[in-house]
């Protein structure tokens, strides 16, 4: 089941221009009731993949982590996203990590949509009180299409991507 959501508004302290988002959000990445959008950003960056043996012994592309700027609606950087572990950090130094609760495929070549439950924030600032992070509108970032076999072992590839990151707080 998909639900359509319309969102506008940002964390007031950031004094950002509101973005508006209207899309069908799959149930697997829906934020539980009782939470509201506190900040909307666009992540623009890259994801590192390495060709190596997986846990089951087969060769494959293994996700090594993101490195992205988090921008407001005007394109101004307000934070960054990096890892591992996956970390969202505001320019004020406050940051969160979290536990992935759900993913949903979003087409060939795109990393999946995602829902993360936030751990308590480190530092004082905009990330204080964030309960969930939702990744939507993903473009790019998926594992490389090239072969990953013994001949390519330890090869590292960087893939560009973009995604909307919505930060929620309890109402």
UniProtKB/TrEMBL annotation:
Keywords, in A-Z order: Signal
Domain of life from the UniProt record: Bacteria
Entry keyword DNA-binding: no
Record carries keyword Signal: yes
Span of the signal peptide: 1-22
Membrane-traversing stretches: none
InterPro entries in the cross-refs: DUF3455
Listed name of the protein: DUF3455 domain-containing protein
